[in-house]
Amino acid sequence: MHSTGFLTSGQLAVEDSFDKLSEFFELYYKNGWTDGLPVYPPTERAVTAMLAYSDREPSDIVAVLPPKDGVATVEKIAINAVMAGCTPEYLPVIITAVEAIAQPEYNLYGRQTTTHPGAHLVIINGPVRKELDVNCKHNVFGQGWRANATIGRALRLILINVGGNQPGVTDMATHGHPGKYSYCMGEDEEGSPWSPLHVERGLSQETSAVTLLCAEAPHNINDQVSKTPEMYLESAASTMATLGGNGLYRSGIRGEQALVMTSESAHWIAEFGWSKHDVKTFLFENARKSVRELRNRGCWGKIPLPEFIDQGNEDAMVPIVQRAEDIVLLVAGGHQRHMNALLTAGYSLSITRTIALKDGTPIRSTKDFLG
Amino acid sequence: MALERRGIPTATFITHVFRDYARGLCRMQAMEALPIVVLAHPVAARPVAELREKVRNTYADVRAALTHMR
After folding, report:
1. CB of B53 within 8 Å of any CB in chain A?
2. Residue B25 has pLDDT above 60, yes or no
3. Structural contact between residues A315 and A290, judged by C-beta atoms closer than 8 angstroms
4. Range of A61's domain?
5. Are A37 and A152 members of one domain?
């Protein structure tokens, strides 16, 4: 290995030939530098092109990532973004995602090493969704969109190559879930009757932002026939408050649970006069199980119940979060009345960060980095 | 790890299937000497008598962990 002037990472000399690509893939796989899928060669030219979309120096430190406490420089992030198949325009989103995931409230050390199947969902808000063609609608958690497929993947590769994530070695997930390859969505802001996530969190509609939420795999909720928001959201509440879920046993500490619904469903509920807060409050009050059902199963006894629950009352109804505001409600997806529950371990809080220039100025476009 | 860094002796319990994982994390955190006490896996939802026996087998390791001069 050697390094050259502009970039400081070690470099491997490989034959520049399509015929040798399989050898390149094998080398990277055997070294544990991939997620198991082929990666794009992070050539000096490709990494340099990626770095054009940052106004920071390649050696600038974005975050230190546990458990290895690896140093995520702009250059290391760019290398992994190239490997994931990102276009250079995606780099600002990925850098912002790394900043977010390293915030203490996110508890990355725990999330990287736990047996729980949490994956890091990258939620993209603001104008950058359109600019980068981030899927917010049909098949939002599925295949087909380069941005969704590769931005989440880049973050996973960074956690592997910088943070030291290794299944069965440091990542002790009992089962994991497919979102650990890539987990990225945009919010369907134009299709929502309510404020999008980043606006709820104090940013302007015109600000582009990234939110990181450590979540289990999406769990579908199919309710085609309910005639009132109450009936419809009871289906969601039932799915969100299952006996095996962490939330019911973790609501004594602050955590979050999320629900994704389509534009169609959100507008239908809004037509009844319901605000986003009304939906959250309904889910908070109805996504519950009784102490009788919870006692001595699941994760009973590991965390004290919320203070407002009388543990001696078998009929007391235990919520999945401490407060209605801790339900994260997102609008995304195609047509029809499906919803998806994104349940969490309850040991992590989602983090929203503005996509910004080095001086903190929010970007209007990724082109802002080109000067 | 945080307690040990403050000079407070600890004994960290782990079941044997997580031993390599625990050692790996200690290496990554530059805390190779962190005293780890290994219990036989599994411990979740096992009969009390079995658990007592598993814990009894660790007494010497716990004592060594807490009294070892660092």
Report:
1. no
2. yes
3. yes
4. 14-216+351-371
5. yes
**What percentage of chain A exceeds 70 in pLDDT?**
99
pLDDT digits (tens, 9 = 90+) for A236-255: 999 999 999 999 999 999 99
Structure tokens at A25: 């893939």
Q: For residue A2, is pLDDT > 60?
A: no
Q: Mutate which of A170, A297, A299, A302 to test chain B, going by most B C-beta atoms within 10 A?
A: A170
Q: Is the pLDDT of residue A3 over 60?
A: no
Residue A236 and residue A285 in one domain: yes
Same domain, A228 and A184: no
Examine the domain organization and report whether A178 and A303 are in the same domain: no
Which chain B positions have a beta carbon within 8 Å of A168's beta carbon?
21
Look at residue A50 and tell me if it is in a domain: yes
Are A172 and B25 an interchain contact pair (Cβ–Cβ within 8 Å)?
no
Number of domains in chain A: 2
In chain B, what percentage of residues exceed pLDDT 90?
Answer: 86
- The DSSP line for A344-356 is --SS---EEEE-B
Angle at A213 between CA A207 and CA A218, to 5 degrees: 115
CA A133 to CA A369: how far, in whole Å?
18
User: Which candidate from B21, B24, B28 shows the least CB-CB separation from A69?
Assistant: B28
Tally DSSP H helices, then E strands, for chain A: 13, 12
Contact at CB, A113 and B21, closer than 8 angstroms: yes
Nearest-Cα residue of chain A relative to residue B22: A170
- Inter-chain residue contact B28 with A170, CB threshold 8 Å: yes
Where residue B70 falls among pLDDT bands split at 50, 70, 90? Answer: low
Of A66, A164, A172, the CB nearest to B18: A172
